[in-house]
Amino acid sequence: MQWLTTGPLKRFFAAKPDMKNSIGQLMGWRDKIINARITEIDKGRRRDRIHLLQSFFEAKTPDGKPLSRADIEAEVLVLLLAGADTTGTAFSSTLTNIISSPDAYSRMMMEIDTGFANGNLSQPIPKAAEVSSHCPFYVSCVKESLRLSPPSPALFPREVTADQLPLIIDGKIIPIGSEVTCSPFLTNRDQEIYGEDADIFRPERWLENVEKAKMFDKYNFTWGYGSRICLGKDLAMMELMKFPLMFFRNFNVELCATSKETPGPPRLVILGGLFHWGDIWFNLKRRKI
């Protein structure tokens, strides 16, 4: 199918930065970001700035050459495409689950406020490591939301190859060339691992037993598994340790009662292989902090 993006039909099937569709707009935005950074570098400004884009400019190929402009464009586009919707969905899952559970919401807010009051969480925005260390219940709320509502529940099959040991499932050898897959939406609700209440949002489960929590993490399929695990996992978790926490820090959130104007309750919808939330209606009020 390569001819679709290289031949005369390319303009119909390959996105370009000047297009007005969603991918084209992202490509245009990407190019502006890259061009702005190149201008800064050419003027000798902010060379010591530490961020992902700068790391692409400083990266080297195996033969010691810098990445080409096309390589940098591809890397930046992957970041924009792969992490935006999934992290946003993870935030909305955390938000919806917490405000739907008054006891969990109250406990989490007490933990966050105490962390800032004691100086364990930096101002104005705490480091992800600080949140992980001093807000265990908040972290468990994020993990529980990711477990119940994996942002990408789609099936990503893997092929059984001849260069690996025989794959045996339930006593049966899977033939070479077969595709094997499963859905994290199902595996993350396995009652043998997470208990009989596996379908319920109960963040306390991550704090009740250290060994069980390790098992929960081990078999959590939200990020994929093995050599094909999500490369952006650490970045996504860093974001989830910061943004939702600061949102709750600065706003009181309350679900709206179901009405004609605010239909509900919140529901999960699968679109394009990704989860997103529909019918989330809530009231926001800035907190005095």
TrEMBL record:
Its cofactor is heme. The keyword Heme applies. SUPFAM superfamilies: Cytochrome P450. Pfam families: p450 (PF00067). Keywords: Heme, Iron, Metal-binding, Monooxygenase, Oxidoreductase, Virulence. Heme binds at C230. PROSITE patterns: CYTOCHROME_P450. The keyword tRNA-binding does not apply. GO terms for molecular function: heme binding; iron ion binding; monooxygenase activity; oxidoreductase activity, acting on paired donors, with incorporation or reduction of molecular oxygen. PANTHER family: CYTOCHROME P450 (PTHR24305), P450, PUTATIVE (EUROFUNG)-RELATED (PTHR24305:SF85). Belongs to the cytochrome P450 family. This is Cytochrome P450. It comes from Monilinia laxa (Brown rot fungus). The lineage of its organism: Eukaryota, Fungi, Dikarya, Ascomycota, Pezizomycotina.
